[in-house]
Write a structure and sequence with these properties.
Layout lengths: L2 E5 L2 E4 L4 E8 L7 E7 L6 E6 L6 E3 L9 E4 L4 E6 L8 E8 L11 E2 L3 E6 L1
Parallel strand pairs: 2-11
Antiparallel strand pairs: 1-3, 3-8, 4-5, 4-9, 5-6, 7-8, 9-10, 9-11
Amino acid sequence: QVQLVESGGGLVQVGGSLRLSCAASGLTFSDYAMGWFRQTPGKEREFVAAASWTGGTTFYGEAVDGRCPITRDNAKNTVYLQMNNLKPEDTAVYYCAAAKQLTSEAHRNDYWGQGTQVTVAS
């Protein structure tokens, strides 16, 4: 059974940082591109970042470009999102996802975690 388990969310002040982690099990981690998405109530899931199978290729959604590097450690079956210079509009539930192809489209992901809440207080 595939499991993606996010951690690292919480409450942070504007301008602060958080590092989200997503630990994967039940799949061959290096066979999957990994991504991060976020969602707020009443809105569609928004693409944040994605990394290729080795992590050598990454790309980002417009809202976080340059502020939130994605990395992965295939030896630990874990993908990370380092969130820097956080803004109130970054408040959301953050989900990690696994896809066979590198993608920014939520529906192309095969597996999802349950999400971790990030709240940025002004």
